[in-house]
Specification:
It is built from four helices and eight strands. By secondary structure, the chain is α+β, with helices and mostly antiparallel strands. The strands form two sheets. Strands 1, 2, 3, 4, 5 and 6 form a six-stranded antiparallel sheet that branches. A two-stranded antiparallel ribbon has the order 7-8.
Amino acid sequence: SSDVCSSDLALDKLRARDQIRTSGLAKEGEAPGLVYNIPPGKRAIAIGVDEVKGVGTMIKPGDKVDIIATLTDPLARMETTQTILQNIMVLAVDKGRTDAQQGGGASSSITIAVPPEEAERLTAADRLGTLRVMLRPIEEEAIVATEGVRATQVFPGRYPVATTTTNEQGSTDRKSTRLNSSHLVISYAVFCLKKK
């Protein structure tokens, strides 16, 4: 009767005059497809992972993750690494597996739920550089503000650095720390001359 089926979800699309059978309905607690697991206002998008980028194949559906992007800063022309997404829900792993109890963790891809504008940023970062996934602890909801890391911080002394001096009046004069393309070209030219 209609009372029996009123709270059930169909496993497939229904057309007018289709006969509804119990085999075509999702069981209690069972989601008929990924579309029913996507939170309102979010979109499902997949990114590639492997054993290293995917936390040693430990990521499972239902986990929360942060995503780090490494790409070249178009202004400084320097590689930059920064966390671009935090506290993101994993909807599925590999070939659409949504059950965390079946199989291991992600080995080839993860499907995550993000707002449409974040999906655009994620796609651009994936296109321009490299993504890596960090697994969050259970019930960890905090969003951490990060400034990212540039090559100057990984290799101190290799690039121009800021200098701070104190004048006779006791005030501090600090030179600009912004790196532009001329700094990098000069550094590269000096490196090549020394190598020869």
